[in-house]
Design brief:
three-stranded antiparallel sheet, 211 residues, BirA Bifunctional Protein, domain 2, alpha+beta, seven-stranded mixed sheet
Amino acid sequence: MEIYWFESLDSTQSYLIDALKAGALSAPVCVGTDIQTNGRGSRGNNWIGVSGNLFISIAIKREMLPEDLKLESSSIYFAFLMKELIASQGSKLWLKWPNDFYLEEKKIGGVITNLVGETLICGIGINIVSAPSDFGKMDIAATPYELTKAYGNLFKNLPTWKQIFSKYKIEFENSRDFFTHNNNEKVALQNAVLLEDGSLLCDGQRIFSLR
């Protein structure tokens, strides 16, 4: 996967989407930056930060994805791929449903996905060297560019959704002391049932990861 790296961008995801629409870039491709000044986060929040943290967005055509991966499962899928990569280097981070990276009880990053035509855009932000108050940072040393290269190499032979889900459903138990959001309302995960497509059944209501 080709990687385009910048010293500073407003948002890797906005840049990548604009470049795809203009025909300047084509999937599969990754855009990364040392500093992000106006990144996109979940529920309309911003994800900004200083040099040394990870800010990347990846574009991949849907036809290149595993046949059993549904669109609503993509945030969990791409987040767990990154989680497994970082964990293989000795980190204790874990994935809170559906797409937030945590160390113990503090969020250190997250994933957001968007569909542009038949191309899936996956944005990833992780606090590697510094974090705002109430957030955490990674427990191992890592270089954003080298981590991005290693992540990009995973796309040469992507695992199936079934393979990812078989591991994630065990890790999901760590999420039970936390909440998620559904239509801007907090939903406790204590008694949630994780379904095989990655969605949740909470108090009779089915909740999908749609970001």
